[in-house]
Design a protein that fits this description.
This protein has 327 residues and is of the alpha/beta class. It has one domain: TIM Barrel. The protein is built from nine helices and twelve strands. The protein has a twelve-stranded mixed β-sheet. α3 packs parallel to α5. It is globular, with a radius of gyration of 19 Å.
Length: 327
């Protein structure tokens, strides 16, 4: 076992989620207030060189899997430059991107050429009017076209993340699932996490994963799936017989998966968070800019990584919105 790769509960930490910006071109109700948030000053945000240096120092400590997030990461200029820099770090095995997909048609080929392996795309509706309503932005956008662009560029397996909200988009569960009958895509239904200042969404809007799976089983029997969709996160996958894709559920509310947690998060301003909803974080940015080694700070962070999140108690570690840490 690589020194420094275990937390205090013996979980192997190998997955780093990197937020490159706190800004987004959407204002999804579960993620960011309609008016936005006070944006981070430019000088507070890590440069691509600083992000790469963090990864270079953590790779020998067991980090080998990266995910680039935001806010919306594709709105930060020259994102492919960062991908290429991270690809060159020894020990990095996989680089993924989480995006709302708006820029995938124009950026997929460039990102693939730079070294990106795959894409997770958020899509909370397949209907243009509802996309506008949920995103609270007037953007001409087709999730299907975005997923096809990523697939054509070789950014697979393409995963589509759908936050299910009762009374808002839960009538589209079956429509999303049927995409997997036609395409080699992997649709993951995520239980809503009502947090921070997202007061318009409550526990009443949460659709438990057991209910989602029961509805999917009415389309056709679901089979357990352990195919190529399985990645670095907590999704549990199923498949319809002979379907090229799969369906999955991510269950932060009904079935916590903290016992298998393998990840830490780097915020856009250089704070390492060991739990999405925890209080614990370490200031990497100031240490990095002072020329200090990150290994001692990383060791102390893993030693304090909590056993489980406190989301069910509605404690969210000071987060105002998910956009602050990229989910």
């Amino acid at each position: 076992m690589i020194a420094g790769s275990l937390d205090q509960f013996g979980r192997r930490i190998e997955y780093l989620r990197i937020s490159v910006t706190d800004r987004c071109n959407f204002r999804c109700a579960y993620c960011m207030p309609l008016e936005g948030l006070p944006w981070l000053p430019r000088e507070s945000i890590l440069t691509y060189e600083e992000i790469t240096e963090v990864v270079r120092q953590l790779a020998p400590l067991g980090v080998s899997l990266l995910r680039i997030t935001g806010g919306e990461p594709t709105i930060r200029p020259q994102l492919s430059t960062l991908v290429a820099m991270l690809r060159a770090v020894p020990g990095i095995e996989d680089i993924a991107l989480s995006t709302n997909g708006v820029k995938l048609p124009e950026m997929s080929a460039e990102l693939k050429a730079a070294g990106l392996d795959r894409v997770n795309m958020s899509a909370d509706s397949l209907r243009a009017d509802r996309i506008k309503e949920i995103a609270r932005r007037s953007l001409s956008f087709s999730p299907i076209d975005a997923a096809l662009a990523a697939e054509r560029a070789g950014l697979g397996p393409v995963k589509i993340n759908t936050v299910v909200m009762r009374g808002i988009n839960d009538d589209e569960i079956e429509d999303f699932a049927r995409l997997t009958l036609e395409h080699p895509w992997h649709v993951r239904f995520i239980e809503l996490m009502p947090v921070g200042e997202m007061a318009s969404l409550t526990m009443e809007h949460v659709v438990p994963s057991d209910e989602i799976l029961a509805r999917l089983s009415r389309i056709a029997p679901l089979l357990p799936d352990a195919g190529p969709a399985r990645g670095n996160g907590p999704a549990k996958y199923h498949r319809f017989a002979d379907a090229p894709g799969s369906v999955g559920v991510i269950t932060p509310m009904s079935h916590t998966y903290c016992g298998d947690c393998n990840r830490v998060r780097l915020t856009a301003d250089g704070r390492l968070r060991t739990c999405l909803y925890g209080e614990e974080e370490v200031n990497f940015r100031d240490a990095l800019r002072a020329g200090e080694a990150l290994a001692p700070l990383y060791a102390s962070a893993l030693a304090a990584k909590p056993k489980e999140h406190a989301l069910l108690q509605m404690r969210v570690g000071g987060l105002r919105a998910l956009s602050e840490v990229g989910g």
